[in-house]
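Exercise: predict the fold of this chain.
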Amino acid sequence: MNKDDVFQPWLKEREIEDVEAFVPDMAGSARGKVVPADKFGSGQMKMPEAIFGQTISGNYVANKQNVEDRDMLLVPDPTTLRPVPWATDPAASVFLDCFHNDGSPVDTSPRGVLRSVLGKYEAKGWVPVVAPEVEFYLLNAHSDPNAEAEPPEGRLGWTEGARQPYSIDTMNDFDPFINDLYKYCEDQRIRIDTLSQEMGPAQFEINFLHGDAVDLADQVFLFKRTVREVAIEHEMHATFLAKPMAEEAGSALHVHQSVVDKSGKNIFTMDDGNASELFYGYLGGLQTYMPDAMLVFAPYVNSYRRFLDPWSSPVNLAWAIDNRTVGFRVPDAEPENRRVENRLAGSDVNPYLVIAATLACGYLGMIEGLKPAEPTEGSAYGEDFSLHRHIYVAIEALRESKAMRSILGDNFVELYCALKEDEYREFQEIITPWEREILMFNV
């Protein structure tokens, strides 16, 4: 069977005309090519490796491993073929894996970084299981970057200004959007579970069903694209910015995580139902190494605005059972479902990298036999700040971390830190309205 045979039956059966073939970049955006369906799979695809050195604003930073701006070989993953339900003409999408000419994987590819971390688990006979939860805002559509973000109008032209967490009636205001979102997700095999109204106006959270780490990262990646497209169809915008409104709650991406052995048994639980040493080691790894990895969980200047109000987002490295005020919540579940919910990431993260980083911290904790602090009793919202408050400190923490380099790779850490440093430099060059209003004539 030639390569053509892998894709063409699927494409012809669905009368697909074009294929969107893409690679997730460092920001979690799609970079790739659109290929006529009748030609897809029959030829070799290439793209510059420098796409992983592209900042969020489109600048490029130097990559010591790719000073010649070489091409990488792109191999479509046939298990990821999906229809693109919003396309005007029948279209499909597929993920591409990235390789050098010698067949080795590109170690700065976010999808490749996650696969590398999973390889370390596999060598131990372990398989991570994850279930993300993603928050986002719907916004009134506009194209003025200087205008404040505002919630959109509901069914009766009413703009919700009050906070209505878990309100069914508020969600019903956006029924047409929600119905199309669920349909498009079903079409693409995005296995979303429950939807709920969050703290902010027109802020929602979607829970994903648990499963394989790469597949769930793919689903979150596709989900973000889908939310934006459905919002546009309903004359709205959608944002995954960590803090889009100054006076409202930020948006998070929580990751539930557990680890099973090759037989499917949860290694966080012993035969008698009690928590295992590996479970406590995993927690200890999160508490020990999360400061090193914080840049992955808070990748932009705006990400740290989400932590300004410690009463709406955890800013600590505490853990507890069934307690949402801590950074690491252990849901009250049956022993076979024992897991940890990492609540520190914003929704602006790259899903591949944030899953890779949280699994890396837990892995180090298990193999090093680390011990967590005692579980928190009561509210942890008033505890001291345990996280970096500033992105530059987070950049230096990751750059200097031997532990993260050992798991995520030197090349990735160097390039990622360089990207974030360049983005921060660009932000620093902007004089804000606050500086002009408060400082200009008073200093």
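Check your answer against the key: The chain has two domains: 3-105, 118-434.
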